[in-house]
Design goal:
The complex is a heterodimer. Helices cover 67% and strands 12% of the residues of chain A. Chain B starts with a helix and ends with a helix. Classes of the chains: A alpha+beta, B mainly alpha. At the A-B interface, α1 of A face α3, α4 and α6 of B.
Chain lengths: 279, 165
């Protein structure tokens, strides 16, 4: 065999070898790409499912916590009303009887009257605390009546609270009513006690399958980051966020020191299953 | 004068740019350090290889491709792409992989270098004026994988553009 032919054959063999190796490498590369894409998608899907389950579990836990909180409040309110309230009433009656045996204009009678006044105040406070713990109006007459009562109690010579309620507004589940009532209670309380507001507006409206609640005030505002970081002061706001997270709700704080606040709560009404968790 | 000098320059530029991409993509300091070491090592090796492959630099008519740099580039790129794929699978940095630009860049690189890794050792020998070897099929494959690589890069750029707008 001539040299040239032998060289050609060797080259041809080398060429074939490289070609086969290259094709094998290419097939392997394609296999790796397909494997990575498929495996990654599968893993990502699995992670999404796990996250959804975790979120669901967290929502269930939060809902259970709030249900427990409401039950505990109810029990406490009942104890206050039935036990302490009753005992205070009995004490007042006993004091009245005792007062009748005392001489008119005597220092003892004046002391008894003073004690009766104190008992009256304490009874009023017990009733107020009991009412705050479980708003009976909410259970009996619904959210609008309860909010009107809340507004009525908050209004005085110095503070004006306004409630804007749309005409056509079918309220949602009772559990959601409790949540909304608690949120309004917290926000109004904050506006009066911390921001020193004199005008507060509570506004309810439906916007694109979403229930919106806006609480506006003319108070001195606050620094949201500072309040959220503060363990004690931020408790109420964090509580609102926790309550809303159960129903995939959201709260926006348009606040700054030195000016009035706008706090907007958004609750999607598309998922009744989440609301049912609260019941 | 031939145009092989441009191929040599292109090798250095593309390798440097891709290593910078990997440097910023890798999360761990050890990987970042490795990427930097590879880059510096490659520059040194490239320099030595460049002068050894072309002892007479002024002779641009007979300028030749670097003898070893292309093979080393292919091997390093294959290693880095496989490491990146391992990172993608293990740490799931993105939810939708097909919309992740770097995934497409790595796909292009993997196919291009897998298709040329066995050809690159011979590039120094057959890219001359009187080529004695017949690598027609291999060269065709090289062209095809280059086209695929460019398509993958185009997809990556399209997704990158979309994510920045």
């Amino acid at each position: 065999m001539p040299d040239a032919q032998r060289i050609d054959m060797t080259l041809q063999t080398a060429n074939d070898g490289i070609l086969i190796a290259t094709i094998a490498m290419l097939l392997m590369a394609i296999f790796i790409i397909i494997f990575v894409a498929y495996y990654q998608q599968k893993q990502a899907q699995h992670q999404i499912t796990v996250k959804e389950l975790q979120e669901r579990h967290r929502q269930e836990l939060m809902a259970a916590m709030f249900r427990g909180q409401e039950a505990e409040r109810r029990r406490l309110a009942q104890d206050l009303h039935d036990d302490i309230g009753t005992m205070l009433s009995v004490a007042k009656m006993t004091l009245n009887q005792l007062e009748r045996h005392l001489e008119r204009y005597s220092p003892e009678r004046a002391q008894a009257q003073k004690t009766r006044q104190l008992l009256d105040d304490t009874l009023k406070n017990v009733r107020r605390i009991s009412r705050d713990l479980v708003p009976t109006t909410l259970e009996r007459f619904g959210l609008l009546a309860a909010l009107e009562e809340l507004v009525g109690n908050a209004n005085n010579d110095l503070i004006s609270v306004q409630l804007e309620w749309p005409e056509k507004f079918d309220m949602t589940a009772p559990a959601l009513d409790v949540m909304l009532y608690r949120i309004v209670q917290e926000l109004v309380n904050n506006a009066i006690r911390h921001a020193g507001a004199t005008h507060i507006t509570i506004r309810f409206f439906i916007h694109e399958k979403e229930l919106r609640l806006a609480v506006l005030d003319d108070g001195r505002g606050f620094d949201i980051d500072e309040v959220i970081q503060s363990k004690q002061r931020g408790l109420g706001l964090r509580n609102i966020e926790s309550r809303l997270s159960v129903v995939n709700g959201h709260v926006t704080f348009d606040v700054a020191p030195g000016r009035g606040s706008r706090i907007i709560v958004q609750i999607p009404l598309e998922n009744p299953k989440l609301v049912a968790l609260l019941t | 004068m031939n145009n092989l000098l441009l191929f040599n320059v292109d090798l250095l530029v593309r390798f440097t740019l891709l290593l910078i991409v990997f440097y910023y993509t890798f999360q761990y300091p050890r990987e970042k350090r490795t990427a930097l070491l590879l880059l510096v090592g490659f520059w040194i090796l490239y320099g030595v290889d460049f002068f050894l492959s072309n002892p007479n630099l002024s002779d641009l008519h007979n300028h030749r491709l670097n003898r070893y740099s292309f093979v080393i580039e292919s091997v390093i790129m294959l290693g880095l792409v496989l490491r990146f794929f391992l990172f993608l699978v293990r740490e799931l940095p993105v939810a939708n992989l097909t919309e992740y630009p770097l995934f497409w860049i790595c796909c292009g690189l993997l196919i291009a270098h897998a298709g040329t890794v066995f050809l690159t050792p011979f590039m120094y020998y057959y890219n001359v004026w009187n080529n004695p070897y017949d690598f027609r099929t291999m060269v065709k494959i090289e062209h095809w994988v280059e086209i695929i690589k460019n398509c993958a890069f185009a997809i990556a750029m399209a997704y990158a553009r979309r994510s920045t707008h």
